[in-house]
Amino acid sequence: MAKIAVLGAGESGVGAAILAKQKGFDVWVSDKGQIKEKYKDVLLHHDIPFEEGEHTEAQILSADEVVKSPGIPDTVEIVKKIVSKGIPVISEIEFAARYTDAKLIAITGSNGKTTTASLTYHILKKAGLNVALAGNIGYSFAWHVAEHNADYYVLEISSFQLDGCYKFTPDIAVITNITPDHLDRYDYDFDKYVASKFRIIQNQNSNHHFVYCDDDEVITNYIQEHKKEIRSTLHPYSVYHKVENGAYINDEKLIVNLNNKPLEIMSIHKIALKGMHNRQNSMAAAIASRVLEIRKDVIRESLSDFQNVEHRLEFVLKVHGIDFINDSKATNVNATWYALGSMTKPVIWIVGGVDKGNDYSMLKELVQEKVKAIVCLGKDNSKIHAAFGDIVDTIVDTQSAQEAVNVAYSLGKKGDAVLLSPACASFDLFENYEDRGHQFKAAVRGL
After folding, report:
1. Domains of the chain (ranges plus CATH)?
2. Rounded to whole angstroms, how far apart are CA atoms 254 and 239?
3. Most CB within 10 Å of its CB: which of 19, 223, 244, 280?
4. What's the predicted TM-score (pTM) here?
5. 8 Å CB contact between 265 and 282
6. C-beta neighbour count of 98 within 10 angstroms
């Protein structure tokens, strides 16, 4: 019996273990940290052996294949040993894709991938398709493949997940944008990060579709430089100019033009999600839907009634005339740039966390224009002080969501907005960005 070792017992690792057990593999799960009770219960229920707090090398290095959770870097000692022994190391996405014949719509990007994946799923569901939403969005792809049977999967996929993909071939691949992020995992080399994102199309041919933002120079430059290697059918989209075989805006109407058949979907003012970046996300979802021959009226209705994703520019409450907005999902500088750009009131900005090699210079102009005070929420806020100390008079350090909300509230007045948009990962003070967002919302409701 072939043996599979699973490194990491979070959502993706436990999902991979369940699928591996179902497919008749001898499975061993190993997590260097402590496993959450809910996942322990699942492993016990499925009679899957596991360990926590350590990696037993003999067990792991005797595997025929290793499924590695995306949060574990390749630089970890046990991973280096696995690789040096010649044991294949793959991601849960790669593993799960082997066991489904469903149509796969895979979406990646530095920002907008959650919104675009959720939008695409919303359209497909409204069209009556048997569709599931999985991947980086919170539900394990492998777990779903093991226990359900969808005809379509909309998968949000991170660069870390793509790094462990070798044969994974989505029918429709989407790249929303590429800006510097997670550079700590890519030797601070932006080109390596860009190449990681483009792994999403590495196995595509002309029968597969590649949807991308034509307004993003990083993407268009890469396509230009690698056009001999890219075999996919290309579908660009732009908010600024007309494109061939994609989507664009004309006379304030969203147009999808595939195979020289322009289709006017709707007025851009009827799109539920506001802001330029959300028009781009809506275009990506609309193209993917039209490739699947979903009717125009279903797309129009879906784009006009879609509810925004939690923790992404989520309005929480108005307290004594001050708006509180939760953008905890903004874990990089570019996401925060979008958030600040969308603000129309004076901002008290809550920022900070684990810095992933951030360059704050792109935010300076917006901060100068819109931010009246900064509340730092992180263990080390020195880079934030250095970046903005000369343009914002009030910068306060805090160590908890409760303290940050209380300080921001005391600095605000009627007509202001308190924006949690950290531009950083959350792991110094919180479990993840969801935990940070939930604590922020709880503190706001407690005012």
Report:
1. 3-90 (3.40.50.720), 94-305 (3.40.1190.10), 314-445 (3.90.190.20)
2. 9
3. 19
4. 0.80
5. no
6. 13
